Amino acid sequence: MFDRDKLEKIQAGEKAYKEKLEKLTQKRPERQPEFKTDSEISINTVYTPNDLADFNFEEKLGFPGSFPYTRGVQPNMYRGRLWTMRQYAGFGSAEETNKRFRYLLEQGQTGLSTAFDLPTQIGYDSDHQLSKGEVGKVGVAIDSLLDMETLLDQIPLDKVSTSMTINAPAAILLAMYIAVAEKQGVTPDQIRGTIQNDVIKEYMARGTYILPPEPSMRLITDIFAYCAENVPNWNTISISGYHIREAGATAVQEIAFTIADGLAYVKAAIDAGLDVDKFAPRLSFFFNAHLNFFEEIAKFRAARRIWAKLMKERFGAENPKSLMLRFHTQTAGVSLTAQQPDVNIMRTAYEALAAVLGGTQSLHTNSRDEALALPSEESVLIALRTQQVIGYEIGVTDTVDPLGGSYFIEKLTNEIEEKAMDYIKKIDDMGGAPEAIEFMQKEIHQSAYKYQKQVESGEKVVIGVNKFQMETPPPEGLLKVDPEVGKRQKAKLDKLRAERDNAKVEAVLGDIRKAAHSKDNLLPYFIEAVKAYATLGEICGVLREEFGEYQQQIVF
Amino acid sequence: MSEKLRVLVAKPGLDGHDRGAKVIAQALRDAGMEVIYTGLRQTPQQIVEAALQEDVQVVALSCLSGAHLDLFPEVVAGLKEQNASDILVLGGGIIPDDDIPELKKAGIAEVFGPGTTTTVIIDYIKENAKVG
Question: Which of B67, B113, B115 has the CB atom closest to A137's CB atom?
């Protein structure tokens, strides 16, 4: 990037600068002996062209909207359209969540994001023994198409895009969404949205798995194939680093493990006979935005570059859309503190800014009270307004990749890429992500433990926890999920089972059982089943019986 | 020679957030205790059985999904039924202050919220658990 003569001059200058610096720091030592990012990358006092001596603009950066997409996936990014402001929401019953959805849309939110309760995520009905205490708690309870109809009532599915955080039973929830849309007169090719559908990270870090890897991968590739033909605007997977990071991973581990997962899905789909350029354009990603500001920005840029290169080199993808890493971001839940919770507003704002400077396609900002409970309506509003301030008031959206070309950011992007590639190669050697789950779990746990020790020793400052502590009264107005919601869901299920055509339900469940052992795509069977009001638990029950359940390895 | 404290770290319910449980498990182990971690998705009954089988003095429950009021007391009740009320039962996770009195009334000895250091928990266990 720089010519030799100039570089030599700069090198001489840097030498003089370092001598001066040395003298200064001997007299007055710096605040800490070393400065490092969260991923333990050493940070220099200053960065210069010397750090980028061999930097090749075309190869490393290029232009926004062009390979390797380091600077962003669209040519003009937020000058064209801001990111989708998408707050994750869901609690209690479908009625309550529908009300929150419509409130958020009225407040200028531009897409929906559905949180499901744990029984729904793990494929149990609300009246299952293991659902006790969990119904409606961390998200909305969905037992059958009936609940889904209520959840999406008066929401125009041809206009609003909906993201659903659902993994193991993703195919069934998508089937329900398609069925509700149909009732609204909206065809599958008109609906837009995302299912998370990323089971490898459930084994690794999030815990809502059902089936073992092999049938899980089959369900995932069935979705890829079905959507490529029938639901072309649906993001068929959201390959997620978010939860890997929340579980303790560093920024480097987050993107390395996520991309390794992504490679496994692509390989599985190709092995199932799909054409890479047909399904890859609908793959999407989901990352965390944590506190270490510059490292986070560099992380997003590095992730885009790595994915584009690997898709091209390993799978011969040619469609530009197959090479683009499009992603949703959520600010870091683990960075929130129960102590002095209003300070969380600031943390979230900086994290959100990093996501925007890193070129995110959509964003969820956490609410200040989430270390204590599900967010109240007032807290969610502040979180949404935070995004709107970034989008409309502070000018960071006026040019693309404003930090591109910064010596520090480019150097950090390179270093993150290198370190992430080291991990990816290691995982390749183990046979790919599904074979490396325990390895990744160990790495994540070690990082989590190290972080905890750093906080306890004071090496890592957490305001309100190990520095600037003060006694504050517990915040008021926390959201409480109605404890009766479990009972109401049970009553609804009893009524449904009494009123529906049970012979029909038996028939559709029998069809799924048969199809499980055939090569048929399971999606059409799920659509028939949900339309007959077979419950999520009943359908997943058949899959459990036919495929068995995943047994977690305990690693710590 | 004092015998080693034995602790069962358990995840009742369907919650998959096990970062805290695993960090605490390792911290207790590094502090010289014998630690057994159950893994995810345990029913209160399974936890009671594991506690008896492993002959622990402490059961540390972690739940971040909001199901603590339903699940923690059942563990205490199950231990009582098995004449194992001497086992110290602790709780942690996302637990609103308002719920703590009810948990304590049900027999949860102490509740540790977000931001608690592992040292605080280690000290508490050393002071309150009855060795073998």
Answer: B67
- Picking from B16, B96, B114, the nearest residue to A337 by CB comes out as B114
- Show the domains of chain A with their CATH numbers: 4-52 (no CATH), 62-71+80-457 (3.20.20.240)
Contact A438, A553 (CB under 8 A): yes
Report how far residue A199's alpha carbon sits from residue A123's, in angstroms, rounded to the nearest whole number: 14
Report how far apart, in Å, the C-alpha atoms of A107 and of each of A85, A87, A91, A163, A374 are.
Answer: 11, 11, 19, 18, 19
Q: How far does chain A reach from its first CA to its final CA, in angstroms?
A: 46
Task: Give the Cα separation of A79 and A269 in Å (integer).
Answer: 35
Report CB contact under 8 Å: B14, A449.
Answer: no
pLDDT of residue B132: 58
What domains does chain B contain, in order, with CATH numbers? Answer: 6-128 (3.40.50.280)
Say what the ipTM of the complex is: 0.94
Q: For chain B, positions 2-31, list CB contacts with chain A under 8 A.
A: 13-19, 22-23, 25-27
| Closest listed residue to residue A237, CA positions, set A255, A215, A257, A221 | A221
Interface probe, candidates A134, A204, A240, chain B, greatest B C-beta count within 10 A? A134
Q: Where are the beta strands (DSSP E) in A248-369?
A: 283-289, 327-331, 362-364
- Report pLDDT for A1: 65
Residue of chain A minimizing CA distance to B114: A338
Name chain A contacts of B77, Cβ cutoff 8 Å: none
Question: Is A134 at the interface with chain B, CB within 8 A?
Answer: yes
pLDDT tens for residues A80-96?
999 999 888 888 999 99
**Are B5 and B33 within 8 A, CB to CB?**
yes
Please give the helix or strand (H or E) that residue A147 lies within, else none: helix A145-151
CB-CB neighbors (< 8 A) of B114 in chain A: 337-338, 371-372
pLDDT tens-digit profile of A178-191? Answer: 999 999 999 999 99
Cβ contacts (< 8 Å) between A116 and chain B: which residues? none
| Chain B residues with beta carbon closer than 8 angstroms to that of A248 | 19, 23
Measured CA distances, A196 to A102, A110, A169, A283, B125 (Å): 22, 19, 10, 10, 40
CA atoms of A319 and A431, how far apart (whole Å): 27
Side-chain half-sphere CA neighbours of A2 within 13 A: 17
Tally of CB atoms within 10 A around B81: 10
DSSP conformational letter for B107: T
Partner-chain contact A132 B67, CB within 8 Å? yes
When pLDDT is averaged across residues A167-177 and rounded to a whole number, the result is: 98
pTM as predicted: 0.95
Query: Quick one: which of A253, A176, A268, A228 has its CA closest to A445?
Result: A253
The verdict on A474 touching B (C-beta cutoff 8 Å) is yes
Question: Cβ contact (<8 Å) for A207 and B70?
Answer: no
